[in-house]
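Pinned message: reference record for FAD dependent oxidoreductase domain-containing protein
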Amino acid sequence: MSKQNITVLGAGVIGLTTALVLARSGKYNVTVVAKHMPGDYDIEYASPWAGANYLPVGKEGSPSAEYERNTWPELARLAKELPEAGVHFQDTVVYRRAKDADSPIGDWFRELLREDAWFSKVVPDFKILDKKDLPEGMDGGTSFTSVCINTAVYLPWLVSQGLKYGAVYKRGIVKHVTEAASFHHTGKKADLVVNCTGLSSLFLDGVKDENMYPARGQIVLVRNEPGVMASTSGTDDGDDEVVYIMQRAAGGGTVLGGCLQAGSWESQPDHGLAVRIMNRAVKLCPQLVPEGKGIEGLSIIRHGVGLRPMRKGGIRVEKESIKGTDGTAVKVVHSIGHGGYGYQTSYGCTQATVKLIEQALQEKAKL
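Predicted structure (tokens):
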């Protein structure tokens, strides 16, 4: 049986994971076409800027929670068996302040901060912290084993694995989603396009998903080692500011954050916010710096800004037929709107996407 041709549009963590899983199945000829590829650092390309870790935020019973649940086994396998992927285990603590409950960060972290969280039966070593072990000002917290990912290693690793199974990667700028079908490396039109363009889906002709919006994040990447991955439910500096500290695998440095600035497209770091981020990190995790030192004890690698591809209504995994510029229908499966949780939903979401791809390829294109 001949393989069917698929073009994956977008080379963020979702596009690259989707391409790898499709290529590895042996059923498809896979081409990835994207404006930005691993190694690029651009405000349009969110994945390199991510933390990235596994801190579930999906509400129990929701598709997002199911994607997170189904992603953990693969991330844990990579951390345990394939160090070359750039994923490692981390002792993790998350802290809750009651006064943050109705803030944007408190809402974002609501499921993460529950003492009866659904993922307590997924991740290892889940414990409720004793009150005496809480930092000053915290009302509760939990600890567990999670993972942190070095994006500078992991994204190229996804490409290398895709290459191993025959996927082809091409640079290209696509104005209409159906144009991606013509980028297939076989020279023939792809049988289906997978749209993994993230925030660009807001502007992509044929899609223009108006539910997409940016949530700006800002980080400081440092050489210091915290010894723990830590997050809190908010700060006194602002309702859309937060504390998170995570050490990337394989010498990737430690990420200090951050913020969740909904609707902001600003690409440049804010110096005042950077100082607040560093001060909060050192206060929460004094072992980051030599004893008696403040933020002057941090060794800064760089400042970073990324735009999380948020979506009203949550992640969109959906199939449809879209009329191209030449009037013919192209089968499209969307996998967009992963917000700040692309890595931790990547494999579970791809499982759902692949099911829709299989269904779509068995159907006649309909307008």
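Pinned by admin. Summary line: The longest strand covers residues 300-311.
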